Amino acid sequence: MKMSLLRLKLDMMLTMALIIGLFVMAFTLIVGTTFGIVWGIALALGFNVFMWLVSPYMLQAMYRLREVKPEDNTWLYRTVERVAKRSGLRFMPKVFIAPFSTPNAFAFGSPIYGYGVAVTEGLLRYLDEDEVEAVIGHEIGHIKHGDMHVMMIATALPSMLYYLGRALMWSAAYRDDREENWGPLIGVLLSILAFILYLLSLRLSRLREFYADAHSALVVENGARKLQRALAKIVTHTNLKEVPNLTSARALLFSDPLQVGDVDPAVRALLEREVTLAERIMSIFSTHPRPEDRIRRLEELAKG
After folding, report:
1. pLDDT at position 262, please?
2. pTM for the whole thing?
3. Which residues contact 45 (CB under 8 A, 6 or more apart)?
4. Which residues of the chain are modeled with pLDDT < 50?
């Protein structure tokens, strides 16, 4: 298990280093072209930081999250408290319930808001208590590892390059001077680089999902087996009619609601199911690993 976690950590570090390295290369290219565009980068970065800080307030309003106090749901509150202590957190995350019948959960937070763990009504309805505890262990893992902060950086960099590339192309289109203008070419290069960084950020997100699964397996007793059963039930009971309402928080959710509909609900069937090449290609554009891949990795952790 230790070697598996070490490889996972190294993979995450290399992916993040590649994202930052490519962005620095693009930044050097921009500075060499025009200093004016640097202010555009500063403004775009400032906007992303602002959205990161206020997004928890927006999520709470958007998904009508109801905060849970100890007297409201003693078991849920105490479970989050217990798992947080086992994870070494020095604070108690806020606990919320989201009014959705689809079983799922997510963690969110920022330095000015604090941190919270939200579970849907469907998660409490369809999963056993030990399975809910394993899901909570996964979400606490995101908070423990600082995934909200890491992914804010990883997703902000490609979005900044994309919009700056578009700005360079549009500004060049309205220039009527006869001077040599490299703006369109640099804009195209930035757009291509932004797409590459976007794919890398998605890969980093999938790796951090595996890492949060491993955290749950470590801090929850028999957590790997419980999380396997939880994944299978979540895939089975996902309400496709609610998927459009959940996709805006897709990256935060415990399980990607867009990856359902063609998966056998049984854990054993998920372990044995062969994923097609088309599904492998589509998973490149997903924030979460496929359930089959997660259950196979949890199987390795359970045996370890």
Report:
1. 40
2. 0.83
3. 156, 160
4. 178, 258, 260-265
Helix axes 2-33, 36-62, angle to 10 degrees: 140
| Residue 33: CA count within 13 A, CB half-sphere | 22
d(CA 92, CA 228) in angstroms, rounded, equals 26
Tracing tokens 């989201």 back to the chain, one arrives at: 98
Catalytic residue among 67, 121, 129, 139: 139
> What share of the chain has pLDDT > 90, as a percent?
41
Active site residue 139: yes
